[in-house]
Amino acid sequence: MTAMKLGLIGLGKMGGNMRERIRQAGHTVIGYDRDPELSDVGSLTELVAGLEGPRVVWVMVPAGGPTQSVVDELGDLLEAGDTVVDGGNSRWTDDEKHAEELAAKGIGFVDAGVSGGVWGLENGYALMVGGDKEHVDRLQPIFEALKPEGPYGYVHAGKVGAGHFSKMVHNGIEYAMMQAYAEGWELLQAADSVTDVREIFRSWEQGTVIRSWLLDLAVNALDKDEHLEQLRGYAEDSGEGRWTVEAAIDNAVPLPAITASLFARFASRQDDSPQMKMIAALRNQFGGHSVESAK
Amino acid sequence: MTAMKLGLIGLGKMGGNMRERIRQAGHTVIGYDRDPELSDVGSLTELVAGLEGPRVVWVMVPAGGPTQSVVDELGDLLEAGDTVVDGGNSRWTDDEKHAEELAAKGIGFVDAGVSGGVWGLENGYALMVGGDKEHVDRLQPIFEALKPEGPYGYVHAGKVGAGHFSKMVHNGIEYAMMQAYAEGWELLQAADSVTDVREIFRSWEQGTVIRSWLLDLAVNALDKDEHLEQLRGYAEDSGEGRWTVEAAIDNAVPLPAITASLFARFASRQDDSPQMKMIAALRNQFGGHSVESAK
Amino acid sequence: MTAMKLGLIGLGKMGGNMRERIRQAGHTVIGYDRDPELSDVGSLTELVAGLEGPRVVWVMVPAGGPTQSVVDELGDLLEAGDTVVDGGNSRWTDDEKHAEELAAKGIGFVDAGVSGGVWGLENGYALMVGGDKEHVDRLQPIFEALKPEGPYGYVHAGKVGAGHFSKMVHNGIEYAMMQAYAEGWELLQAADSVTDVREIFRSWEQGTVIRSWLLDLAVNALDKDEHLEQLRGYAEDSGEGRWTVEAAIDNAVPLPAITASLFARFASRQDDSPQMKMIAALRNQFGGHSVESAK
Amino acid sequence: MTAMKLGLIGLGKMGGNMRERIRQAGHTVIGYDRDPELSDVGSLTELVAGLEGPRVVWVMVPAGGPTQSVVDELGDLLEAGDTVVDGGNSRWTDDEKHAEELAAKGIGFVDAGVSGGVWGLENGYALMVGGDKEHVDRLQPIFEALKPEGPYGYVHAGKVGAGHFSKMVHNGIEYAMMQAYAEGWELLQAADSVTDVREIFRSWEQGTVIRSWLLDLAVNALDKDEHLEQLRGYAEDSGEGRWTVEAAIDNAVPLPAITASLFARFASRQDDSPQMKMIAALRNQFGGHSVESAK
């Protein structure tokens, strides 16, 4: 293995752990974060100065404005022959813009979808990468350091954008898988004949068609709180589920289960449902059905 | 027109108004209800005694047990050649049972789906009828009295069960139409650029593809309460939406919009969503995403 | 009524009929179309020259590129104080761009969603309008000419974009209403007990909760072809259904019935379903279930 | 371990493998099948005669009529104190009937949902069991023989019916998980930027949130046929998905993702979609949109 020197921007929950895993693999990482407690250097300029050409800088900041700002700054600080990797949760449609902006200065661009969450430091991060082969190849030692051991967990998915697109679809699938277990759990909880839903879930962890890591996590959660009484049925969405549905619409691909899962999250966040007010109003209009008044 | 003599069992909101409309058409109605204040006679025996053979008795009581009891009683009280009409909201699968039970005694059976709600007394009731031609024909004067004027509002839909089946599908369609307006209303309410959703709905009442009686009712409701602030987003379901989905499953017919409308009602009645607790639990497990605690 | 002089660009099926209806109301219309057979003038320059300031020009060309081109040209040809109306099917997100571009030259902008299809010439067009009051007011005589008689069919829905947004939601609702009737029709066709689905639909045209203009059209279609045997189950989508779902996603509004209707159209256009190939492959993998080979 | 003697009725793909696995564990199995080539004995009478009281007989025949027949016959052949296990895919609502029928003769009843498919012989079968503790306990050595090694793969889920109910929900979850991967696969296949969908799926097998046994199977399938060109997008359903949705309706539990998955299978089996014919007919009616003619 060739030890590399990497600039890493963004040292939050994900970035911080990634810095540690890359260092454990023997590479040098200069990390920058706006929080001085986390940062190795005082500025992006300092970070760039600490690297030698051809430089490689990994960006791990929130999608949208923050990533755009960092890409703009790096465009000014880096030189032709350097490479920028966006490992954040950017929308794939941003990647081509960033690639063009940097390409105008001779700087390479790679997009990397990163999966693994809080377990990544220990187990490795699954990586889905998009970009030109020459840029992707330059990053290979870092990808090796981050990915899980063994033949899986890394793919060069296609050209610029394909990494984030693949990660986005991964998350869309994740939404529907979670929804699948959640629907099954609610139905079992509702059934009279069933006495121990947690043990049913546990029994499924081996030998069944539906065994999975998510199922293992569900059992972990039920072991902490058998009926999830400590939680509210409220779920945020990170944006990637939305983009998945939008990409499906762009491509005229029907996506009923993933979209149902996204909508279930939207609904979970409403204190009262405006659309169901209208249903109640209509029922009252034509049938004289009684309605419930707002509190 | 031949004036008829009809027995009518069940004089609630629907049955009471139907009695009035049939009488207004010049027929004689002997009505029975468990509530003596509503009833013309003291018992079913008395009702049957007041009719002359071949007797015609219209049953307008709640589906399931109550209808079954009345059919059983009528089987004992009536004679061969008489006819029973079930105009309640029975599940179509009950009709064949009732028809067989009565046919064993030579009594005819007709099932009638009745639409029109509280507006039926004035506008007439739409009728969907199932049964053998000979039994249906006998009822024709009563059907004429109940239905709206003009060429619509009545159909002999097929054999026994077809009347309630058609009414059930009518209600399934109704669920999805209501859901359609409700979704559109919520989306317009959420849009920044839109300032007057009620007037948009009102403008649609003529000249648009989506004009309908339900739309008129929606505007009525918004005129009473522009943002439906007096209502809670809570909707019961009467059973016919459930049966529609079950019939679709029996026939392997995909019914995505109607089923989505039914599920939206189920969800509207949950104070907290068990399945979304599981989603929250899983997000917390793999991503360390924060969760909201139950109150 | 003040007779107005209007420039109208785009004289296709919609624009041509609108020209006729506006003229019938006593206004002067100078129409331009790329097809010289339809056009009143030879060029946009000629059209603008034929109007007197403050000029009003109605654009009725396909959304996207064509509308953008015309707006650009009009920006060059018109003068401060003139007004442009986009009555095409533009996405509401385009409206603000167009308004800003024209406002920079002192030209007003109004967006108008127009419903009514081939029936509009006779019955009038429902109009949903967005823009500043001063620009909208200037158009009032034209809106009066186009809209149906009576108190409906016109609304000033809000600021720029609100007209197209409202029309888009109208179309989203339309998708789900059509899907509602279509699902009900398929289920009735599949039921053993039902003998005459067309007459059931016809009976619903009056006295029912689900009576509507779309239902009337369904009966018209069934009168021409009782079992729709002449048609293939294939449906295009015009874009507005897609935008409705995207707007819902932007606003975190769950839209299950409308989205299901859109996805049903996507699926209808696939000769074979890639996702169902994967389902078949998985069933074969774990269960040894037999699969059907591609033809 | 106490070696047991078990009667096993139904030696098809599942039953045959289960006989082998139980024998490998050291128990004696007398198998009966209508196919003499597979059967150990010539009749049920002979099978029962070969066992000693208290006898245990495992039924592994198709749900519905065949299972009912065998239960009826066993009711006549067995004696008080014996136990019948239904390990087939019976609907949970049948279990209570069977239990009552046998209880009237003092015969115990246990329902067992069995998962594992063609891989069960080697890996073990996951078992979900319902019934009274005394009957379930008697079967423990057989359950031990069938289940996978380790702490998972077996649960006593509740009273009679709970085993099949749990297995049914397992299969409902399975439908939605398969649909999740299938939707993601179709979307990736449709994306321009993505060049190697199979390798993306393979990369997900480790380190991702969505890793699972079904994902492994998907990769197996893609390794045999990268774009699934040999398959048609056609999927049967075994009944348990339907029952899951029906159980959800009974319990007023919204099940959008699982139901969407079921409906996608229904649609996959239609050569042409009746409901989309109606959509096409309506579009033609109001918009003059062109339609595609049936072939």
Automatic annotation (TrEMBL), chains A, B, C, D:
Signal peptide start and end residues: none
GO molecular function: NADP binding; phosphogluconate dehydrogenase (decarboxylating) activity
UniProt-listed InterPro entries: 6-PGluconate_DH-like_C_sf, 6DGDH_YqeC, 6PGD_dom2, 6PGDH_C, 6PGDH_NADP-bd, 6PGdom_BS, NAD(P)-bd_dom_sf, Pgluconate_DH
Alphabetized UniProt keyword annotations: Gluconate utilization, Oxidoreductase
A Pfam family this chain is assigned to: 6PGD
Gene3D superfamilies per record: N-(1-d-carboxylethyl)-l-norvaline Dehydrogenase, domain 2, NAD(P)-binding Rossmann-like Domain
Residues of the 6-phosphogluconate dehydrogenase C-terminal domain: 163-290
Biological processes annotated in GO: D-gluconate metabolic process; pentose-phosphate shunt
Family from the record: Belongs to the 6-phosphogluconate dehydrogenase family.
Protein name according to UniProt: 6-phosphogluconate dehydrogenase
Source organism (scientific name): Streptomyces flaveus
